Amino acid sequence: MKKIVKQVALLWQKGLYPKPQPLPRTRSFWIGTGLVALAALAYIIYFSIFLITKHDAFKTNGEDLGIMDQAIWNLLHTGIPHQTICNTLTDTNCYGIDGLDRFAIHFEPILYPVSLLYLIWSDPKALMLFQVLVVASGAFPAFWLARRRLGNDWAAIPFALLYLFYPVQQYAVNFDFHAVTLTIALLLFALYFLYVRKTLWFLVFAVLCLACKEEIAGVVFMMGLWMLFFQRRWRLGLGVMALALCWTGVGLFVVHSASPAGHSLLASRYAYLGDGFGQVVLNILTHPLTIIKDHVLEHNHLLYLRKLLAPAGYLPLLAPWVLVLATPTLALNLLSTDPNMYSGRFQYNAEIIPILIFASIEATALLAWIVRWLMTSLSIKREKSEPEASQPRPVRAFVLSRIFLVQAGVLVLVLGYMLLRVFVSSTQYDVYSVMPYARGFVQPKVTTHNQLAAHFLKQVPADASISTQTTLVPHLSQRQSIYLFPYAVGHADYILLDASGYVYPFKDYGSYSAGAKAVLQRGDYGVVDLQDGYLLLKRGYPVSDITPALQMIDKHKHTD
Questions:
Q1: Exposed (0-12), middle (13-18) or buried (19+): which is 483, by Cβ within 10 Å?
Q2: SS3 156
Q3: Alpha-carbon distance 136 to 182, whole Å?
């Protein structure tokens, strides 16, 4: 016992993570790197084809691809990430027909360099492809980090595959474009450089992560704290924590300044906890059991945690000292009144994913160390218990080889179990992983109806304002004023509808058809063109017989 206490004290003095020794780049390293590169390339090709087809099949959305496209297009042309797309029926982000600054919702300065993509290709597809490329690159730091922690090139490859196939990661990439989704890879680079103590590169990627969304400052703060406790790097750790706090202050100032309400438009998701940060913290500290019962142990919240952990076979739970890095984002998601944030879907889990990968690596390294320690202890006890004999004792090499074989066998079992879980989880939960074997998978197909849309899109002038449906928005969003129908009816120059398309934000087709018919019957808009469910209206256009348009809307009631 004294020996264990002494070892723990020594470990604490030096730090749990001393500076690692570099590993030689042998042939197995280059073969492993090549295999990871091939996996990343396959990921890029598959997702690029899938997402381009999805967009051409009108399966992308106004919220959020249309929003991001318009904000980035405006940023490039006016210097301000202005957006006018919002949901007037069920959301809180609509504050006037003139729209608002994107920074009133999220502080995402990385959009400035991202907007330069539109100098090359001004199309929302460029955003999706860029996102795929960045996220795919995260397979390399996953491989490098696992290689350093496990000391084996071959054992590191499964972690790159775990990263590429993680369901919540694939859902985030599939769900349009978001700046925060880029942190899935950027944060993994930061974690790798944090571990190998390459300070400059760590700071570069930490700042890139901070620039993706204001909430990333919480994770970066925890990384600074982690440096203090586990690497004993006091000066850098305190500096990183200070950077995160300063960035939070700047982000809050920008959001509050840009917001027409004078505060974050998303603050209502936490209003039940009190007004202001101090009151929220006090409420949580004074009612911990209620918070745990309602926001952790409640069925949907528990299911959310399972969706995050199950693909890695719950291995991250064995490395709580790494998993703790995700607590700021987990708290934001679990405490939110918006069920989307704890659904396991969308972009809300982006910065949690790289931490889950790191925790899985640490858990595997821990299991390998435990096996080696047990085998070594048993060998020593066996040697001590054996009586002196005339025959020489087994050589140490044999004992070590036996330990190595057992350790390798356990490692193979753990890695095999982990990879099996990442595939099984895609079939167990409704987290759409975009793989053909996944639960709920639907292959997007471009139909003749989709191709007909081009005829209607061309009839809308580039400088005209328009109110249109969510799946049509990303195809028209590079303009100053575009709205999500039924917003801006009576104000927009044009209205373009697709009676056979997705009717969000209406709850059902009945509500949608009533809204569309009301526009026709009011007489402010005339029918410019209609065909196969598409209906193009223009404000002030001569009003003709609206019966064909009404009949077309009624014809598609089966889409409800």
A1: buried
A2: helix
A3: 10
pLDDT of 395 reads 45
Tens of pLDDT, residue by residue over 498-536, are 999 999 999 999 999 999 999 999 989 999 999 999 999
Determine the Cα–Cα distance for residues 511 and 486; give it in Å rounded to an integer.
Answer: 11
Backbone angles phi, psi at 82, to 5 degrees: -85, 140
Task: Report d(CA 217, CA 543) in Å as an integer.
Answer: 55
Contact 163, 172 (CB under 8 A): no
pLDDT at residue number 400:
52
In 396-442, where does DSSP find H-type helix? 396-428
What is the enclosing helix (H) or strand (E) of 47? helix 27-56
- The DSSP 8-state label assigned to residue 390 in this structure reads S
Domain boundaries, the chain: 2-362, 363-423, 448-559
| Each residue's pLDDT tens digit, 261-296 | 877 778 888 888 887 777 888 888 888 888 888 889
**Collapsed DSSP state (helix, strand, coil) of residue 100:** strand
Q: Is the omega angle on the peptide bond into residue 486 within 30 degrees of 0, that is, cis?
A: yes
Instruction: Count Cβ atoms within 10 A of the Cβ of residue 439 and give its class: 0-12 exposed, 13-18 middle, 19 or more buried.
Output: middle
Residues of the chain scoring pLDDT < 70: 1-15, 92, 378-400, 402-404, 430-433, 557-560
Q: Which helix (H) or strand (E) holds 475?
A: none
For the chain, the C-alpha Rg in angstroms (whole number) is 27
Closest CA to 177 of 116, 135, 208, 119: 135
Closest CA to 339 of 314, 303, 312: 303
Q: Which secondary-structure segment (H or E) carries 77? A: helix 67-78
303: DSSP letter: H
Q: For residues 410 and 406, what is the distance between their CA atoms, to the nearest angstrom?
A: 6
